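Budget justification note: compute hours in this period were largely spent on complex prediction jobs such as the one shown. Inputs:
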Amino acid sequence: MAQGSTKVERQTGGAGGPDFKASMATRYGLDRAFTVLVTVASLVGIAVLAVLLVDVIRDGSTMLSLEFLASFPSQIFPENGGIYPALIGSVWLLGLTALISVPLGLGAAVYLEEYAEDKRINRIIEINISNLAGVPSVIYGLLGLGIFVQLLAPVTGGGSVLTGALTLSLLILPVIIVATREALRAIPGAIREGGYALGATKWEVIWSHLLPMALPGALTGIILALSRAIGEAAPILVVGVSLYQTYATAGPFDGYMALPTQIYDWISRPQQIFQDSAAAGIVVAMAVLLLANSFAIWLRNRYQQRS
Amino acid sequence: METEKTGRERKVSEVSRDQRDARKKGDGAAPGDGLTLGMKIQDLSAFYGSFKAVTDVSIDIQANKVTALIGPSGCGKSTFIRCLNRMHEVIPGARAEGHVMLGEQDIYAKTSDPVVIRRRVGMVFQKPNPFSKSIYENVAWGARINGYRGDMDELVERSLKHAALWEEVKDRLKESGHGLSGGQQQRLCIARTLAVEPEVILMDEPASALDPVSTQKIEDTMDQLKQDYTVVIVTHNMQQAARISDYTGFFYIENMGDPGQLWEFDETEKMFSNPERKETEDYVTGRFG
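Corresponding output:
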């Protein structure tokens, strides 16, 4: 009997018994409206990126060539100029920044999440780290200028690529720490207990279980953070990036050029040839970014499969 | 580290009664030399911060027997069992007072290292918690960090066989432990506990999250285990306690907010047929809880 009546209700479009009076048309209408809304939201980002890409590729296509990648920039013969020292400088920056910030960030996150007891000083550190993520990047540049360029000049060699990387590391450390902590926090306590119950020390549990499990999440943060670092112009301008130099960076204590500052330099010149060079530079910068991100994503997927 | 060395020499599964008796008699064995040990618990109380969760439990856990701990929810059974391998103190603010003798050693003595104790007194948890590693690594990891020098492949096989899981996983040892069913995962956790060759195995409601078939398999495993180990199991399932245990302890809270206490402890048969105290009888006959 009851079954029969629900069947009838369903056929007439109503749901449930006499007390349930929702209109299915309205509910499905909302359902569809929401689907459209979220699709549009995601398309906006993709569309903007696509327009940007098409635009710079079109503008830069006249300059873009293997020769452009392998040549030094030139003011006298700009059509023969290239981006080589800036590209090499940015790769150095990216590599050194990753080498410095990733171990420090992972270490700090492990301390805060696994070792720190809930003391006042630790809570102050926590709040500070979250706030640091929001500090304008030029401020980090000024900090780097004070500490790495001046105070630690004997160690860093003043305005070297190492100084640039150290400054960028400061900038992105909070992001890496926060992402890694979130990833560590998501690991069930049962994993830790399972480890301890076998007679493992804290470090053994962290090294064998927690870090591998947190790595995919941490890598997401690291990807985002390094992408930001490689695109920053303001902080490295303050700590002594070269706008022109006659050699490519070959070691951590050398001077360096960088893609964002090179692009900035070109774009501020009125001649069309420099505008085109800037567009080509943007394409190169995006390619470097994509390459680095693909590597990190490949690494992340490898770890996700293993776990 | 005498115990560790001899513990390593011991075979998990193949020690028969005779062999053990022979060893008991001869070869100048040191205490805790791979013979199964019981535990003597004296005046054990457990705290969470200032809250006393369990008070003054004194109990003798017999070697090579299964001791079941039963009682209504929230009466401190799980807290108590976690005190037996110093896992209770892993929770921030938690501590225990009293003495727990493992053979001749008080595990709460200042000189006792919790990391060593936890290898000697293994634990299987309520929810299966395999590591995010392969089946093989799940079993091998604990043995490796504890410095196992023998044939690892053989140890893994032996441990999995003893946990009645070998036949089901022998062709996919390299696959993730998370791909197993809940019951298989729990047996994997038992296997990894066996692989570090403990003397006592604590089980905190090991079958409560499992279906009846898996539960049956775990219970069968337990029957095997007591030949080589001392087993303590917390369970909500009274039939299970009656089926598998030799001794039963009943935990009870008299008034709300009081700490849990060991209300009655005896041989399982007596506890289920003719307990001394009324609350025990009410509980085992299903009148409350």
